[in-house]
Design brief:
Layout: E1 12-16, E2 22-24, H1 27-35, E3 48-51, E4 60-63, H2 65-76, H3 83-94, E5 96-99, E6 106-108, H4 111-117, E7 122-127, E8 131-135, H5 137-153, H6 164-168
Helix pairs in contact: 2-3
Length: 174
């Protein structure tokens, strides 16, 4: 039996935000949203959940239906009433916006969310595998400058695939 491979977000791009907060989702991202929404059919808009989080979150994290379901399932396995569960429910339920792109593939980012993360006339979309992030372009550049610096420090012969070796080693807690 063939295993279904989940769609992944890939790439990044900066898109204009109009005065009403509408911004086009990259076309490749829209295909992933469609493929990851079990209720989506041709002619409908796929569902997406935008998590804006607490005061320290400086970007919007957009979840496919499959990805948010996985998060919800993990939260549900925590003890009811525990501080961890309450915190996660607060972030992923209270501080989130279920939405859909319009017929032309644009999201409407409410003023409250744009102001929270500093988005004005442009938004940067960044693929994160099973989610994508929406940033104010300058904030993204500032936040990720340390990664670029670290990669530069690794030298010209550095192969980023070496980092994957860490993923195959058993963790200390196993």
């Amino acid at each position: 039996m063939a295993r279904e491979v989940a769609q992944r977000f890939r790439g990044e791009g900066v898109h204009k935000v109009d005065s009403k907060g509408r911004v086009s989702i990259p076309a490749l991202f829209r295909r992933v949203l469609e493929a990851s929404d079990p209720d989506w059919t041709e002619g409908l808009s796929p569902n997406v959940v935008i998590v804006y989080g607490g005061k320290n979150q400086n970007n919007l994290e957009a979840y496919t239906q499959e990805a948010i379901q996985e998060v919800d399932d993990k939260i549900a396995r925590l003890p009811r009433g525990s501080k961890q569960r309450r915190a996660l429910e607060h972030i992923f339920n209270s501080q989130s916006l279920p939405t859909q792109p319009d017929d032309t593939g644009r999201l409407v980012l409410p003023a409250k969310l744009r102001e929270k993360v500093g988005i004005t006339n442009e938004a940067k979309f960044v693929a994160m595998g099973d989610t994508f992030q929406i940033w104010a372009p300058d904030a993204f550049d500032d936040r990720n400058a340390d990664i670029e610096d670290w990669l530069d420090e690794q030298g010209e012969d550095f192969d980023p695939l070496e980092l994957l070796e860490m993923a195959s080693e058993p963790s200390v807690t196993e």
